[in-house]
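job 3f2a | input accepted
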Amino acid sequence: MTPKGQIWVELVGDLVIARVRGEPTEELLQELQEKVLFLAQDAGRAKVLYDTLEMDAPPPDVPWAQRALDEKLGSLKLKRAIVVPNSRLAYLARIAFGEGDYRVFYNDMVAAITWLSDAESE
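job 3f2a | predicted structure (122 res):
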């Protein structure tokens, strides 16, 4: 298990890609959210792919911290796909993103990207 979490956020085509490795902390999620929002606003992108395939399950307070961050989004609407390796992280993702516009995918990066891309018609 990686002792400290790591994040990478980059713009790839029409998507903001956010990767998390290891165990995230509330501070790391805050930094991740800031980077995602900067790229989303700066590049005019509203589709975000969260890659958590190498993430370790955090303590229960961490997903709640993500939900609190999302409540501060205001009028910014993001469509997010979260790719998870197992049901535990899927459950935590559902806690973290609550009522937002997102979908959880199990180990299927291609389906997640396809779903985000198909959002054009919505």
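job 3f2a | The first strand starts at residue 6 and ends at 12.
job 3f2a | closed
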